User: Fold these one by one.
Assistant:
Number 1:
Amino acid sequence: MSDEKQQVSRRQFLNYTLTGVGGFMAAGLLISPIRMAVDPVLKDSSAGDLANVGLAVEDITSEPQRIDWSVNQVDGWYESEVNRSAWVYRNDDDEIVAFSPICKHLGCVVSWEGSEQHPNEYFCPCHDGRYYKDGTNVPGTPPLAPLDEYEQEVRDGMLFLGDARPRGEA
Amino acid sequence: MKWRKDDLQQYVQAKEYIDTILLPLIPIQLSKDDQAEKYASQAEVMHILANEIEKELTGRIMLAPSYHYLNSADKNTEIHRLKMWAEDMKEQPFSQIVHITFDSGWKKHEKDINDNLLWIPAVQAGEINSKEMHRIIRDQVGQTAELIRSYWQ
């Protein structure tokens, strides 16, 4: 080795390599905790996602109709496809309303005009719970709260529904 | 209601409303290759069916853990065990137990079971996740729920 070429001393060279290797190791240690700390921010929340239920807005009439659709749901151990249903109609103010069919008493499935004795009402087959057309529970029947209402949105003439919320919060 | 901690908690609060037990009877037999598959597939369908019926009528039905038995076993012995189950269940205010099964062997012993026995012909439509299967099961659920409701009248 000639003297002119020796611009990096042995000492400097060792310093550089050690800092470099040390830096890599530190980065390796730090990068995973940082990713974990940031992770919750990067994840888009699945709550509040609206799903296309396959019903065109112009097909919604003042007569409640039952629609079924499915959404992906992660539930503890497993991810599964969950079937959801709703009763959809247009109310007197021409607004679209989507009710969850889950009875507020003990969770059976209610149906519109499910009993011949009670026309124009939702009827729960389990304990004869009843709801008026606007979802309000009929006093004197087992349910103590009105039917839950789905979050909704209309996009390109199709109805999108989200999660069911108790009335008043929706 | 299902046989789960959360549901049981709710059950204890609302006992008087839940008066029916749904008890699936599921045969098993692993010893013969060709039959094992059949029993497994029937068991799968039965689980789905029972769960769906429970979903429709949650507020009045308790879906008990399935009763499994060897297909080759003597039905009289099984009936004896079933009766012990029923006895214990009726310590709670259940007015009826509905047994649901694909096994036609029970039909002959219907008289000895003191409760309702619903025998449903098994569907062998192959793929369990197919559209066709979904439709068939939906249909069976609807009709079976209807029948159970008629017991309540």
Note: The mean pLDDT of chain B is 89.
Number 2:
Amino acid sequence: MLQSLLASLRITAATMAICVAGYSAAVWAFAQTVTPFTANGSILMDPARNPIGSRQIAQGFSQPGYFWSRPSAVDYNAAGAAGSNRSPTSEDLKARAAETVAAYGATPDNPLSADLAAASGAGLDPHISEEGALYQVPRVAEARKLDPVKLTELVNQQARPPGAFLSNGRIVNVLDLNRALDQLEDTQKQVVAGQ
Amino acid sequence: MTLQAILLVLIIIGGAALLSWPLGRYMTRVMDPDGGTGAMTGVFRGIAGSLGREEQDWKRYVFAMLAFNIVMFTVVYLIQATQQWLPLNPDGMGAVRPDLMFNTAASFTTNTNLQHYSGESTYSYLTQLGGLMWLQFVSAATGLAALVAMARGLAGRSLGNFWLDVQRASFLVLLPVALVFAAALVLGGVPMTFGGSVVATTLEGVQQTIARGPVAAFVTIKQLGTNGGGFFGPNSTHPLENPSFWTNMIQMVAIIIVPMACVWMFGRIIGRMRHAVVIFAVMLVFVLIKTTGAVVFETTPTQAFAGLPIAQDVGNLEGKELRFGATGGTLWAVLATATSNGSVGAMHDSLNPLTGMMPMVGMWLNESFGGVGVGMINMFLYIVVAVFVAGMMIGRTPEYLGWRVESREVKLALFALLAHGVFILGGTAIFAATPWGAATLNNIGPHGFSEILYEFTSATANNGSGFEGLGDNTVPWNIATGLVMLFARFIPIILPLAIVGFMSSKRRAAESAGTLSVEGGVFATMLAVTVIVVGALTFFPAATLGPIAEHVMFMN
């Protein structure tokens, strides 16, 4: 009995030292050396070195001049992520989708792309579909007084197939897109100022 | 199914199957070295002390396994209970309720990883790595050790020594494979930092706190050890736990590769590779059937959006991540429940009703590759029953690998298989009829019933996934599922070892022309039918009340 306890404790110590401490340290050292940006959560900084978000994490957008992320059951809380966990047959889900449809002003002639109505698994999906982005182009263009053709080009430029030939359709990173949008406007202002 | 979906399924399952062959060969070499003297055996004997020298019978082997598992449970309970005073706690996680500590310790000791908490808001980095990740290694190692012992017994040898086997599994199998997969996930963009969370100011000027952590190390062993417990609450749907299509593919291969290799290792140790091929094929067929069902059912668009101006042409997207493509999350749901992994790549609660039934079927059967080590052990229980029934049908004393299967062995096998049904259906009945379950639902009607059924299924199958809308961090849920996980883990490990112990104490018969061959199509069919009759039919009435009723009521 005592012998078994002692053997268990010695194996506990050995596995803790090697499989926990040694293994974690090795993976950590590898990650921090080879991929320091993603190893630290893909945190993006503004010019003053203040964090503005993670490239991998959705943030909430509600102003008309930005592209909006997918709905989030946790309001984009990146310290307490979760999905809606509603059944696809649920009345609550229907009510939520109706609100989203109203917010976008979707109509049967101009139906909303489904990913913009469906909440993601963690509530932090950083992507929307290319169709979902194009759907928002008229609103963003009007709010920013930009040429919709130029915005469409920007969306097309940023859209990527998530898994090369193994996936259908293309997706866009919303934070990347909105940062590019801000830059685009800055350059335009400079051009106008220069004229 | 689209062409892309079929290609993806073939690459993941086929790729894992191909890789499992060399891995099975390697695992046999290090887990069962010739004459018990592998390169590291001396070192492991040194760590184990005098107990590392004995040849154990099934009782001694089980005793050693239980002793180590009690220590595992106790250590992790204590780490949780003291985390607020321990280091590596940059986000200041506080004390945890005792019932949750009990549930979590039971959950990770039993390789289940049912999580009634969210990692990013409950546990410190020390608890996550030193407690939970440690158990992800040693609980999987326990399962692997038990399988090797069972195979040795069936080969007519002593069961070996648990103290050596558990170290071989931890250090020589799980650790090196984990290092390879962790490197791949790091390159795919999974974070590995001790820096604590970051407070960002978003483009619209809102404060967003972003939880981070030593994710890559944790996620790798969560997948390889069929553990499934996520670093973050929503598991592998979280973008930092699974950032891309490619990390999603790597993780799916990691989910299924070790359970597949376990079948080959079993075949090699008993010296019957053709028998292993038959078992592998039966398991594979079950996985492919469930996969096809799930992928097809999930192409039905979200029913709740019908009638609204929403363009739905890619199936049900609620609870799914776009970067995994249309089928990534669904395929994952099948693989992680065919094995006892239980991580999720889409929210199972939001799957279409019949899609959501596929994971449940996987856990009811619990042998389509199953957990590390224990999946093959579960299949052994079905084999004993199949051999017995076949023996009765042809009027011969049933034999398996030359060992006579008599009433004592069959009783034990059936007891272990029926316990599975009793825990699932009994637990569901009690919680569905009382506020313990009924007051914790996130959905009403048949889907609410499915939430309870899924939770007990997951606990009993030592899976760990969930219909996560269920408000399961309550005292009744924590205690009930905690106990179920413990019983449902150790009954189907101890009884098979006992069966092997009893069988191998008899004289081994030479196989003759009249012996039922365990290497052909007849046996494969017999085994598959046994699995369906014993495994699936037990649960058909419950399935009718849950997912099937929901489908019939709402999906038209």
Note: The first strand of chain B starts at residue 198 and ends at 201.
